[in-house]
Amino acid sequence: MTWGACLVACPAWVTAQTSLPTLGDGSELTASAERRLGERIVRALYRDPEHIDDPVLADYVQGILQALLGAARAGGTLSPEIDERFAWDILLSRDRTVNAFALPGGYLGVHLGLIGLTSTRDELASVLAHELSHVTQRHISRLITDQDRQTPLLLGAMLLGALAASKNPAATQALVVGGQALVLQNQLNFSRTMEREADRMGYGLMAPAGFAPQGFVGMFDKLQQANRLNDNGSWPYLRSHPLTTERIADMQARIPPGQATAQPPTLEHTLIAARARVLASPGVDALRQWIAEPQATGFASQPVPRRAAALYAAALASNQLRDAAGARAAARALDDLLRDEPAARRLGRLLNAEIELAAGDGDAALAALPEGSARRPELLLRMQALLHAGRPGEGTAALQTWIVVHPGDASAWQLLASAWQALGQPLRAVRAEAEAHAARCDYGAALDRFRAGQDLARRSTAAADHIEASIIDIRLRAMESLLREQAAER
Ligand SMILES: [Zn+2]
Description:
Blueprint: H1 5-9, H2 12-16, H3 31-47, H4 55-75, H5 80-85, E1 89-93, E2 100-103, E3 107-111, H6 112-117, H7 121-136, H8 139-145, H9 151-159, H10 169-177, H11 192-206, H12 214-228, H13 236-240, H14 245-254, H15 267-279, H16 284-292, H17 304-320, H18 324-337, H19 342-358, H20 362-368, H21 376-389, H22 396-405, H23 410-422, H24 426-439, H25 443-459, H26 464-488
């Protein structure tokens, strides 16, 4: 748990508590101001060592979010202004604790611990639907602008909510230095009314978005079970979202009679949850236990989902321990179980590609990936494989097409930078590096790289570089203006 670590690296954070974007006379924070505030927060989160852009998990969670956004749009609960201005980005953390939170500007934070705990896609969707509703209902902006509250304290609590659970003494120190030691006792606490509203609005998004509303009840059951145990610090979500009997009763009452039973989990979700548990870096001992599980007596008689999850975890854990042979053996056994479910089979193929990549065999990784897929995990893995195989030129067109639609994809820019570098195109490489920084909201670092690009362009005589140079000029000015805006808000 070190979301907080970034605070130490970034002392500007502590002062950010007292440097709010200019507010009017208690009116709502504008959508743009809230987005900029969010950008300042996520810039620190992106730098956190616990931050992980795992394309497979990110694709899955983003798919759920997009479905919910579609439902909110169609149902009129997402205003066009918010829809356009907010980021709708999800930041994953390797953190093993169970937590999810909404940040200003349409950024959602999700811990792998929460994903690993869910049994169904619907349960995960219920958490995202709730958090999304906090955002669409402008709860954050209302909290920030609420005149009855101590604004800087609240904002600090929000920025650093996760920090309260941090075991990182250095981060705690940073807070005390900032003079806001009180923040440590507070999470971002929405009011009960806001919680109820987020539950109800979130619930209303489920069916239209294609999820079983029972997911809410399933998730509440899990939270309730944890509630009965002593809170050992691994359930921050329960602290920010106290599970009242009222909340449970309210949701249960909404399920139509006869539909109370949960949907069976898909194999796809079972594998995703297993992936989250392994990537939450639980340590070598846990990895070894996962590797050993398929060898246990009686394993063959376990139900298919259980075996599939165990084999997926074993393959991934072997991969983490750099045991390619073990990973391949588990992945082969897994393939046999996934025949009937295309979405799970796809995860099996991506796993195979990952294993071959880790083994350094770019061609074998490419063989595991379908050609021409425009989905993000396939695109990113394919480019990595092409780089390994020494043929990055074959992947740049697809990646550039992707980036036109998703200019905020830092990992895609970073891969493109490596590809241009390998292809002897230093100017394009520098620009892609700059864009990767900009995508992580680090405009200062982006400006730095754009300037390096300008220098490079001045020395270049290639005609193609001329176009690239003018793009760099435009982007450099954009970064300067973003930095000026940020400075004005201090
Ligand atoms: Zn909430």
